[in-house]
Write a structure and sequence with these properties.
The chain is about 30% helix and about 20% strand. It contains three helices and five strands.
Length: about 100
Amino acid sequence: MYARSGSKRQPLAAKREPMRRKKYFDWEQAFHFIWQNTDGDGIWRGDAVSLAEEFDALEDDAESILDELRERRLIEKLDARTHFLSKWREKDDPPSN
């Protein structure tokens, strides 16, 4: 690729960083991922970094999603890398009515 400078053609800077798009994901997709990766006691050992890696997203976006899940009372933060699913039931258990 060349850039025009007056009437001369010059190569574009070789050190240009490639544009990296981040995927969009919402709280439902994040919750589904967390649910699928929760142990039998309803514990998910993950954080914004691991969530961002899974969705190829920014860590700040992943932290916002985790905040939303906490606000919706779907997860509770136990420590920096551990969350508990608030309304956990075994994946194979039918919902109780």
